[in-house]
Structure formats: C-alpha cells, structure tokens
C-alpha cells in the first residue's frame, strides 16, 4: 500500500511541477484557454489518472488477499 501512496505523491508532484517549468507559449496558452480545450484536456487526464489509481488499488487488494491465502495454508 505504501508503494501506491508513493506513486500517487510522485504523480501529483509531476502534475504541479509542469506548471513551474517557465515555458513562454502565450499564444498557444491563450488559444487553449479561450476555446475551452485546455479544461477538456485536463478533465480527461484527471479522469484517466483517477481511474488508473482506483484500478491499482483494486489490484493491490486482490493481491493482498491472495498472499494472505497462500500464507495461511
């Protein structure tokens, strides 16, 4: 379970550090924000990220359950 928390923390750090990269792409940023595409892209990425994290948590629980069954035999 600790690995999942580390992965989540690393992912969030990467997500927030990309905003601090200091790239000057004003025209591209204005185009994306004024047309609303930026928010759509961010929304889809957040949904995919949350889905992957939920999937990893479910897989982790199943693996723990199988490990406990193996150790109890």
Describe this structure in words.
The radius of gyration is 19 Å and the shape is elongated. It has one domain (about 1-70). The model has no long low-confidence stretch (mean pLDDT about 80). It has about 70 residues and is an all-alpha fold. It contains 3 helices and no strands. Helices cover about 85% and strands about 0% of the residues.
Give the DSSP E fraction (strand runs of 2 or more residues).
Answer: under 5%
- Derived from helix and strand composition plus strand pairing, the structural class reads mainly alpha
Query: Which oligomeric state applies?
Result: single chain
- N-end to C-end Cα span: 23 Å
Overall number of structural domains: 1
Global geometry:
elongated
Features:
single chain, 73 residues, mainly alpha
Describe the SSE topology:
Elements: H1 2-17, H2 26-35, H3 37-72
Task: Describe what is shown at a glance.
This protein has one domain (2-72). 85% of the residues lie in helices and 0% in strands.
């Amino acid at each position: 379970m600790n690995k999942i928390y580390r992965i989540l923390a690393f992912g969030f750090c990467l997500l927030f550090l990309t905003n601090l990269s200091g790239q000057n792409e004003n025209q591209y940023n204005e185009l994306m924000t004024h047309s609303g595409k930026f928010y759509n892209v961010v929304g889809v990425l957040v949904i995919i990220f949350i889905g992957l994290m939920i999937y990893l948590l479910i897989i982790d629980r199943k693996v723990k359950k199988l490990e406990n069954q193996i150790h109890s035999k």
